Amino acid sequence: MSHKIAFSTGPKKKFIFRLSFFALSAFLAKRGENQKAIRRIYQE
Length: 44
Hints:
This protein is an all-alpha fold. The chain is 93% helix and 0% strand.
């Protein structure tokens, strides 16, 4: 569904959609790393 919306809105909106998706995935990856670090601290 989100892909259809991205295609119908045009290249500029598609770029913004892609950029926000990249930012979200980077944020989640960073959060995952932080959680691993916290777990390591608690285990020691």
